Amino acid sequence: MDMDKLVSLCKRRGFIFPSSEIYGGINGFWDYGPLGVELKRNVKDAWWNDNVKLHNDVRALPGAPSAYEMTGLDCSIIMHPRVWEASGHVGGFNDPMVDCKETQQRYRADQLYVFGVSSKNSPATEFRVEGNLRRLGDWAEHWVSAVGASVLDAWEAVKPRAAKLAKTKPDRLEAPTPATTVLYLDIAPEDRARVLGPNATEPGTLTEPRQFSLMFKTNVGALEDASSLAYLRPETAQGIFANFRNVVDTSRVKLPFGIAQVGKSFRNEITPRNYTFRSREFEQMEIEFFCHPDESEAWYKFWRDRRFQWYVAHGLKSDKLRLRDHDPDELAFYSKATADIEYAFPFGVSELEGIAHRSDYDLSQHQKFSGKDLSYLDEERWERDKAGLGFSSFKEYLKSREGQERPGYPYQFVPHVIEPSAGADRATLAFLCEAYTEDTVGGEARTVLKFHPRFAPIKAAVFPLVKRDGMPELAEKIYLDLKTHFNVFFDEKGAIGRRYRRQDEAGTPFGITVDSQTLTDGTVTFRDRDSCRQWRVPSAGVVQAVRDLLDGQPVPAADPA
Ligand code: GAP
């Protein structure tokens, strides 16, 4: 699928616009148009419904170690700055940045790949790219760099230049692998002068990597000094941790339980790119799932598989979707396991969602920085066990274990956290990419967005075949009946074929046409977006028919012509 075609359709049909476009746009910020806002809202609503509202629906539970509760929060975007010190964002939420003095472009040094090129007219086998520039300095006469989502993306971009330097044809160069590529970040400072930057004409124009904070800063109140410094949240997660005590004390939830939040996050990304994939303002859909430390690994597996299945159930094809477990050396020191759900976007395989086992790290940090007790007492378990243990009160139990590392364990502890953290914009983009289809119907080419009906911005469009014989009035009545239940669209302009095409491009799953037969037998024509099959439905049953189809009832066979 060609990304440019999707971007152009999204603009043309009002899914996504560049922010502030009449002023030339602003890099890394996007606006959702009339169709886009519905699409993204449907994605967020589906996520909320499936994870929060329907959490205890028995169908949602297979694989769960036990029953669990879910609740939600909507926290402020600006929080006390100490939150971000406790979370580690103030000190450590940085990306290494590199500037090119010649082209004035800025890059993330950890996404800037460097390939070695021998200028001898080398056959493919002699074109070697290795992980250590210094060791290979003897034979590689040129070093050429490129940015990419992956080594292969970067390689594609740099291949013509590499071939020119090596005085050979691009197809004679062997594709490198991650293991045989140098990241600019890893190159010894004295060797950096030999690297030719992306699109630069002279080597040595790239600066030393510098750490760049991704946190957007602002000031709260009238004074603009260090005392009023605050941050726009870079993730929704910390609002959940900061409210853990409030939720436990007010909502009577018992472990295991999860708190969900959907909301805006902000990161001053060095290189926002790939459309909405890496933006500076975006929305996250995050769950912090609190559980007993002894059960945390089972819960991690549960969430990892459950979240993967959610994307499959909504139409992302398994050959484009993968669950990638992080290698132990990729894990943060406090994390026992992390997996990324990745999707093969047209610009490369990239992360949709991360599921992390965060142990008790976040709550312990907030406990330390705030001085507030964020432990959890499992009263039921204590009440059940205390007689057998021979204690009359928990205080006595604690006293008996004085000096131990976790005196309250296994009854009182800082819960462990499993965090499924998704991006609403990335999910929306993946569903758009998956839906984009070009096919031919009746000999005519069309573009159609084959969304899962749950996500479709418009669920059905109603058309009078012609603007006479009472058809517009009948169609309008059906439209108004449907409108109280679903987002529907009325269109009476132009040839019916054109009207169908317009709705195909908007991803509308069903078309309903009032035609001459309606006037005689009261039925209307239903048309399925994907198969273009048509069948008749009594006009009095249209609402129920749309509901059944949206609920997954199969599209009937076409009526005989
Ligand atoms: N609390 C954990 C956390 O924020 P993350 O991997 O940094 O983890 C989670 O972000 C998800 O948020 C990502 O998988 C992605 O879907 C989304 N996301 C992160 N940065 C983004 C950006 N710059 N633009 C769009 N979505 C982003």
Explain what the structure shows.
The chain is α+β, with helices and mostly antiparallel strands. The chain is built from 17 helices and 27 strands. Strands 3-13-14-20-17-16-15 form a 7-stranded mixed sheet, sandwiched between helices. The longest helix has 20 residues, at 34-53. The radius of gyration is 28 Å and the shape is globular. The two termini are 34 Å apart. Glycyl-adenosine-5'-phosphate (GAP) binds at residues 235, 237, 267, 269, 278-279, 282, 284, 286, 351-354, 419, 421-423, 425-426.
pLDDT averaged over residues? 91
Structure summary, number of beta strands = 27
Read across the widest sheet, the strand sequence of neighbours is: 3-13-14-20-17-16-15
Distance between the termini: 34 Å
- Annotation field: number of helices: 17
Provide the gyration radius in Å.
Answer: 28 Å
Which residues form runs of ≥5 with pLDDT under 50?
122-138
Find the structural class using helix and strand composition. Answer: alpha+beta
Shape call: globular
Percentage of β-strand residues: 15-25%
Helix content: 25-40%
Unique ligands: glycyl-adenosine-5'-phosphate
**What summary fits the major beta sheet?**
7 strands, mixed
Give the topology, please.
Elements: H1 3-12, E1 16-18, E2 30-32, H2 34-53, E3 69-72, H3 81-86, H4 89-92, E4 94-99, E5 106-108, E6 112-117, H5 133-136, E7 142-147, H6 151-166, E8 182-183, E9 195-196, E10 210-213, E11 217-219, E12 229-231, H7 237-242, H8 244-251, E13 257-266, E14 281-291, H9 296-313, E15 321-325, E16 337-345, E17 348-357, H10 361-370, E18 376-377, H11 379-389, H12 394-400, E19 412-413, E20 416-423, H13 424-435, E21 436-441, E22 444-449, E23 460-464, H14 471-483, E24 488-490, H15 496-506, E25 510-514, H16 516-521, E26 523-528, E27 534-538, H17 542-550
Parallel strand pairs: 3-13, 7-9, 23-24, 23-25
Antiparallel strand pairs: 1-2, 4-5, 4-10, 6-7, 6-8, 11-12, 13-14, 14-20, 15-16, 16-17, 17-20, 18-19, 21-22, 25-26, 26-27
Helix pairs in contact: 2-13
